[in-house]
Amino acid sequence: TPFNRLLLTGAAGGLGKVLRETLAPYAKILRLSDIAPMAPAASPHEEVVPCDLSDKNAVHALLEGVDAICHFGGVSVERPFEEILGANICGVFHVYEAARRHGIKRIVFASSNHVIGFYEQSETLDANARRRPDGYYGLSKSYGEDLASFYFDRYGIETVSIRIGSSFPEPQNRRMMSTWLSYRDLTHLLERALFTPDVGHTVVYGMSANRDVWWDNHLAAHLGFEPQDSSEIFRSKVEAQPAPEPGDPVAIYQGGAFVAAGPFD
Ligand code: NAI
Ligand code: 15L
């Protein structure tokens, strides 16, 4: 049965605009939130609630009456620490604190492959691999995963942390042939993450059924995530691009160019 009211943060973003449509069947009311402008509510099934995640009181008000949360809001690329701190680190803390106070029991957290970005592409990781964040952004997602773990152990709030690879309409480069997650597979994974019972804190890698993958989801098998798409249909288009120079981080590290972002001063 669908949730009565499902909150989607980051609703103005690239994924949020897609999920605004595809999550609709999973809730009677979809509450959409972002700091950036959003299209007005299209039907009685939508609520549009602007909110800055770095504002604790505003986040508390945002979660009033909510049954489950897909937390996709925040800075989504490498940026100076101070920007990441407010939106991602304080932001995810505010979401969990408000969930605790409102009695909300299920969160899906948009984590990222950048929590393990400093592994080389030759390595295969499962959810127990030691984290190797590739920047302040990856560190903020690592903190979010730890917060999810703590709020389950301490308060029984369940989370699925999805280490999303690269979720775009198509893989944009050779690296994304491995990391690509189609919108259809993302939506299926969110459905599994919202409705599978007893997930505790589960970490799952968000990738489609691509030919060459770096991640092994056996520790999240209970979710029943079965991706349908593959980057393979885009191979000739992607490989028509010039190959990266040997030594370019984009061809060495799982996190690609993020490992070489910054410093910012
Ligand atoms: P995006 O940057 O397009 O969307 C993020 C949204 O968060 C934006 O609309 C932005 O306005 C909002 N936001 C930023 N700071 C905020 C604040 N202080 N308060 C409220 N809202 C704020 O990113 P995208 O691609 O849609 O990603 C969505 C989520 O998924 C992000 O958390 C990102 O880190 C994560 N993710 C996405 C991946 C992808 O391939 N698209 C890969 C891995 C993780
Ligand atoms: C991410 O975490 C970013 O949010 C997204 O914009 C992509 O860069 C993706 O990772 C990626 O690694 O391709």
UniProtKB/TrEMBL annotation:
GO molecular function, one term: oxidoreductase activity
Keyword Oxidoreductase: yes
Gene3D superfamilies reported for this sequence: NAD(P)-binding Rossmann-like Domain (3.40.50.720)
Keyword NAD listed: yes
UniProt domain NAD-dependent epimerase/dehydratase: residue ranges: 7-171
Keywords recorded for this protein, A-Z: NAD, Oxidoreductase
Family designation: Belongs to the NAD(P)-dependent epimerase/dehydratase family.
PANTHER family: 4-EPIMERASE, PUTATIVE (AFU_ORTHOLOGUE AFUA_7G00360)-RELATED (PTHR43103:SF5), NUCLEOSIDE-DIPHOSPHATE-SUGAR EPIMERASE (PTHR43103)
Name of the featured protein: NAD(P)-dependent oxidoreductase
Provenance organism: Stutzerimonas nitrititolerans
